[in-house]
Design brief:
Length: 280
């Protein structure tokens, strides 16, 4: 594999950083190549503004999708964006690692997607062989790649289960898995999650590190989340599932073509309470 590891945690001594180091070491030991975007260490600017598009005339109204596509096609996006896009072109696998803050990723990571996944690169790509149809949800600018989230959270595992007060983790990550990875054509691999991160003891860390190493060892053969392709014939012209597809099912689950593959929960580490590194 050629792995791009995107890391989003501000503390280099955090649990997240330690797990990232474990993961990169495991990739090297398995003979895989990797590159990294450590967003806080890079001082990544998460804010989309006119500076991203140097050729956009100041007097013109800024329509971000239009301006970003024009700048991308002309090779005139800002240099930091182009550097990240080159890493993505090189990679066949993206690993996106972050602590779950307010039920989502840190703003710096959201801003990385906002600025790097521009129209004409990650989305808004047309299929010339099919009447100019826009390629998305299983197709798109990043098709042929796989992506996995590595998530730490201070909450206990049961609270992120099907009846947990926090909502189940699959639902919380649906915007990332389906709306970002799958939308741009990348296959979303089930996440690796570490719970009780604020109370992790030495034994809990050892379990989390071992679990991550094992997940990375088996990653090339891990079945992706079975989302339905938009071009698979199951959606109507309004991008709504046909009435005969998954009848009675609504919400995120309706967009799964089958039940989750066996072993999917094996990537989650419900670490026990104790004293140790906080990583909320």
């Amino acid at each position: 594999m050629r792995v791009l590891w995107i890391h989003a945690h501000p503390e280099p001594r955090s649990l997240s950083a330690a797990l990232r180091d474990e993961g990169l070491r495991a990739l090297r030991e398995s003979g895989h190549e990797h590159r990294q975007s450590d967003l806080y260490a890079m001082g990544w600017d998460p804010v989309v503004d006119r500076g991203d598009f140097p050729d956009h005339e100041p007097e013109r109204r800024l329509v971000v999708s239009t301006a970003s596509k024009a700048a991308h096609l002309s090779g005139r996006l800002s240099a930091d964006i182009r550097a990240e896009q080159e890493k993505i072109r090189w990679a066949d696998t993206l690993i996106v690692q972050f602590p779950l803050w307010w039920f989502g990723p840190p703003a710096i990571l959201k801003g990385w997607f906002d600025r790097v996944f521009v129209k004409g690169f990650a989305y808004g790509v047309k299929d010339p062989a099919d009447g100019g149809r826009t390629l998305r949800y299983g197709d798109g600018g990043l098709a042929g790649r796989r992506a996995m989230a590595v998530v730490t959270t201070g909450g206990a595992a049961p609270a992120f289960g099907p009846r947990g007060i926090n909502g189940d983790l699959d639902s919380l990550l649906f915007p990332l898995h389906h709306g970002t990875f799958w939308y741009t054509g990348m296959e979303a691999v089930p996440p690796f999650a570490v719970y009780d991160a604020d109370r992790l003891d030495a034994a809990g860390y050892a379990a989390a590190a071992a679990g991550l190493r094992e997940r990375l060892r088996t990653l090339p053969d891990t079945a992706p989340i079975p989302f339905r392709r938009e071009a698979g014939g199951e959606y109507d012209r309004d991008s709504v599932l046909r009435g005969d597809v998954a009848p009675g099912r609504t919400g995120a689950a309706a967009h799964l073509a089958a039940t989750a593959p066996a072993g999917r929960d094996g990537g989650r580490v419900p670490c026990g309470a104790g004293t140790g590194a906080g990583d909320r």
